[in-house]
Write a structure and sequence with these properties.
By secondary structure, this protein is an alpha/beta fold. It has 7 helices and 26 strands. The strands form 7 sheets. A 6-stranded mixed beta sheet has the order 7-4-6-5-9-8, with no helix packed on it. Strands 16-13-17-21-20-18 form a 6-stranded mixed beta sheet, with helices on both faces. Helix 1 crosses helix 6, helix 3 (201-212) runs parallel beside helix 6 and helix 4 (227-239) packs across helix 5. The model has no long low-confidence stretch (mean pLDDT 97). The structure holds adenosine monophosphate and magnesium ion.
Amino acid sequence: MKILDFKDAAQLIEDEFLQITKDIIEINLSESTGQTLAEDIYADVNIPAFDNSSMDGYAIIFSEGKKSWNITGEIPAGNFKDYALDVNSAVRIMTGGRIPTNTNAVIPIEDVIEEGSMLLLRGGIEIKQNQNIRYKGEDLKSGLAALSRNTVLKAQNIALAGACGRIKLKVYQKLTMGVLATGDELVDITADPGEDKVRATNLYSQLSQVKEINMNPLDLGIVKDDKDLLMSSISSALKSDLDILITSGGVSVGKYDYLKDIFNEAGVECVFWRVNVKPGKPLFFGKYVKGDKTKLIFGLPGNPVSSFVSFTLFIKPVVLKFYGREDFNSHFAILTTPIKKMDTKRHFIRGRLKLDDGSKKYYVSLSGSQSSGNLAGLSNSNCLIVIPEEMINPATGEEVECIMI
Ligand code: AMP
Ligand code: MG
């Protein structure tokens, strides 16, 4: 099977994601942070609902050149009482209080002096008509669109949905992503690895990556490199209602790398196997179609850095895009060390990106050994430095793209 270029592989994954239908569910506003709206939301009332003061101060009827008034009443927020004012009178008003009929300016408390029942304007202060009044509907008129479908809800959007009286919202259901670790050498992280075992860290890193993209993680545990055990785990995962299956290990060319055969026997159609990247070359991507439902299958390589990088490159961006999120960010930065790269693969190098305070430019250095098993180096990095296929041995000072992780 042909080894694909990075871009072709990413495109094939995106094409398959577009075939998936996202279910729509209704949730409480208080649980909607990070969810993607599946409906447009309209204002059910004028926002604000009435003309009100934006300052603690005094409501008056504007009259050019006037500098003193009689205080004739008080309006705290939420406790409106109308007053019949004339140009000589003022009403004390609090922020958010409804302004009395006919008044058309609020003088802030800082701009006046109260002397008994008299209100005197401080020297040098100018008043303008309509100042410090928030007019009914000026934020949003009743019936107009407040939030549109595909908005990824953040606190500021949730405030607006709340102002529209929406305690329930329709959002796209998160995908359930099952994570399975495979390998005879794997033990639970609570176990002592002893002389020849390995703690199954991938299980936790991929579950965490699923959480980071705000999807539902499902822990499918560890399975040994045994065809029957693998077959039973994979087929029960395929029969379950998960949307995406992510395995790690067992997809390379080793004698006990059975997963490709197992996927095939279990009815998974291979879309591609192997991509011209480093790390992560043995990536398997397939689909399992049952009736009108398609599950996508990612067989990530076992090396902890490879599985992390493969998820970052091939799963994260497409899921974020699919759910309307725009926070897959990269920066261009200047290399502070040369990088040895002789082949025509696309490399993703663990790096540490920093903004230089003086020049306001980004610089990136390598974070430790680039071995695909190096967890400490990975943990110490905050980006993946992209060295494209055609770039050979980039030198210090060259500009490179860095994908933030
Ligand atoms: P494989 O892709 O199965 O050949 O595994 C490649 C390397 O990754 C081996 O050194 C494995 O021990 C290691 N490995 C595989 N799965 C995991 C895992 N879940 N957690 C940590 N290391 C793993
Ligand atoms: Mg293995």
